[in-house]
Each structure stands twice: as C-alpha cells, then as structure tokens.
TrEMBL record:
It comes from the Eukaryota. The keyword Metal-binding applies. Pfam families: Lipoxygenase. Keywords: Dioxygenase, Metal-binding, Oxidoreductase. One of its GO terms (molecular function) is oxidoreductase activity, acting on single donors with incorporation of molecular oxygen, incorporation of two atoms of oxygen. One of its GO terms (biological process) is lipid oxidation. It comes from Hibiscus syriacus (Rose of Sharon). This is Lipoxygenase 1. The keyword Metal-binding applies.
Length: 303
C-alpha cells in the first residue's frame, strides 16, 4: 500500500514525473484508462498472456509443453514459465494444506471478503466481467493467488529492473520530442539528411528533462540492500511442517532455475539470451544483489 501511494503521489498523478517527462503528458492517464477497459485478470497468467499474444501454438499447462512456443529462443517466456510453474506449485501445496475441501473456501468469511473487495473496490469498473474466478473452490484460489504473486514478483522484475541498462543512455529511450518530423522539401529536412544526429539531439528532450528521466529510471532499477527475493522469508514464519517443506521445495526449485538460466546464457546457439553486446538475460534470475544488477525477483514490488 505504501509503495502504491508513493507512486500515485510522485510518479503517475496529473502533475507527477511520468506525466511531465514522457511524451503523452496529460493524456498518459487517459491512455491507461482506455487500455484498462480491455484488461482481463485471467490474461495476467503467463501461459494465458503468451497464448493471447500469439507466442504459443496451443496451451501450455506444464514445462513439458515448452516446445509449443512459437519462438524457442525467447528468454522471457522460457525463464518465465519455469518461474510461473514453480510459483503455481508452491501456491497449490500451501493452499491445499490449509483448505482441505472446496467447502472450506466457500465458508471462509475473510477469504470471501478479500475477494469481494479485490473485485468490487480494486477493480470496480470491471467487477461484473464474467471472467473473474468465482472463488468457490480450491482451484479458483490457487489460480488467483498464483496470478497475483506472478504480477507482483516476476512480471514486475522482468519489466522494471532492466530499464537503466537500456534507458540510462538517454538517446536509446527519449521520452518526448520537442519538434515534429520535418517535411520533405524543407530546409529542416535537408539538414536531417545531412546531419541526422545533430537534428536528433536537438529534437529529443532537454538536458533537464533527460536528467530527470535518467534519475527516475536509475532509482527504479535499484535493488535495496535489504531486498527480500522470491521465496525468502523471515525466520519462524510458521511452525506447520508441511508448508515449511513446501517452502523449502520452492526455494530448491528456484535455485535450480538460477542454474539453468546461467547455463543457457552460455549456450552460443541461444543468440537471444546474450546478443551482440554480450549482456546476458538475467531479469528472471531469482536472486540479485544491491544496486543495479539487472537481475533478481523481489518477493513483491518494493520500488
């Protein structure tokens, strides 16, 4: 709640940094609102997202279905699906211990009140959409919790912590243009043909705007020194043996995925994992390090 409040106060409100330094300006929130109208909670599950975007031929229900990826050398999908199914198994093991039957789901007043608030308050504009899970059985709970954990951990890590490596050099990612593209036959167009770099730098954001964006991107790309990464917990979080065993299995699987990511990044046949500039794809590497490491999946959004 704190990080969301700070984001609304400093970044994404009408007078926030995002509105002032990115090209849509005052229309940024309006554009987000239009896009939100077609938002679907169920599409946030990684297998569903990949299918919706045409990146999967059929359904992906387990890691045995990885061969259905349209692009086999697709690091986000390959690493992400490993993380997704690890999260899903952990959630299933945990929920199945505390909810033995579907009736227990239906009769839990706190669970039902949470789900009602999530839909009707958190997503009031979409509360009547038919795709919402009904939260009447254990599968509904497992599916919903897996999606929420995925969004707040791995999905956010994949889109957030690589920003500075690319956008820290501002010409890679100018957020606004101070001039329109010149039309053919004009003096400005002739200058563009003669010296495109000079025209480009005169067109992109001012030095102050550029510095502001770079500072924001740098801050957003940092891992805190006390970051809690996916699967990490404070001691004595429970005394129940089965959830403790499930948590240990989850962390063991995450460690295996780390090893697989590092191994794949050394495979010369997988050209999309490193690229010509020799920067490996580590955005879904479960653990990271303080500062800008471009890897590490926090337990939840912390910046």
């Amino acid at each position: 709640m704190t990080i969301n409040a700070l984001a609304r106060e400093l970044l994404v409100n009408a007078d926030g940094i995002i509105e002032k330094t990115f090209f849509p300006g005052k229309y940024s929130m309006e554009m987000s609102s239009v896009i939100y109208k077609s938002w679907n909670f169920m599409d946030q599950a990684l297998p569903n997202d990949l299918k919706k975007r045409g990146m999967v031929d059929g359904d992906i229900n387990s890691l045995d279905d990885l061969d259905r990826l349209v692009i086999k050398d697709y690091p986000y999908a390959v690493d992400g699906l490993k993380i997704w199914f690890a999260i899903e198994k952990w959630v299933r093991d945990y929920c199945s211990f505390y909810y033995k039957t579907d009736e227990m789901i239906k009769e839990d007043p706190e669970l039902q009140a949470w789900w009602k608030e999530l839909r009707e308050v958190g997503h009031g504009d979409l509360k009547n959409e038919p795709w919402w899970p009904k939260m009447q059985n254990r599968d509904d709970l497992i599916q919903s919790c897996s999606i929420i954990i995925w969004i707040a951990s791995a999905l956010h890590a994949a889109v957030n912590f690589g920003q500075y490596a690319y956008g820290g050099y501002f010409p890679n990612r100018p957020t606004i243009s101070r001039k329109f593209m010149p039309e053919k036959g004009t003096t400005e167009y002739a200058e563009l043909e003669k010296n495109p770099e000079k025209v480009f730098f005169r067109t992109m954001a001012s030095q102050l705007q550029s510095l502001t964006v770079i500072a924001v991107v740098e801050t957003l790309s940092n891992h805190a020194s006390d970051e809690m990464y996916l699967g990490q917990r404070l001691p004595n979080w429970t005394t129940d043996s089965i959830p403790l065993e499930a948590s240990e299995a989850f962390n063991k699987r995450l460690a295996e995925i780390e090893g697989e990511i590092l191994k794949n990044n050394l495979d010369k046949k997988l050209k999309n994992r490193v690229g010509p500039v020799n920067v490996p794809y580590n955005l879904l590497h479960p653990t990271g390090a303080p500062g800008i490491s471009s890897k590490g999946i926090p337990n939840s959004i912390s910046i």
